Amino acid sequence: MNAPFIPPDLLKKYLNGTASEAEREIVEAWYDSLRHSPDYLGTLPDIEQKALREETFRAISERLNTRELNNVRALPTTYFRSRSLWAVASAVAAVILLTVGIGLWLNHPVHQPTNSSVAVNNSSYIHFVNKQARIVQKRLPDGTVVWLHPLAELHYPTVFPSMRRDVDFAGEAFFDVAKDASRPFRIRSGKMQVQVLGTSFNVKATPRQALFEVAVVTGKVVVSSVAQHGPKSVKTVTLLPHQEALYNVSTDRLTFHEQILQARQEFYQPVSIAFADTPIKNVLTQLEGRFKVSFRVSNPALYHCRLTANFTQQSLADILDLLCISLDATYTLSGDTIMLEGDGCS
Question: What is the DSSP secondary-structure string of 262-297?
Answer without folding.
Answer: -SSBPTTS-EEEEEEEEEHHHHHHHHHHHBS-EEEE
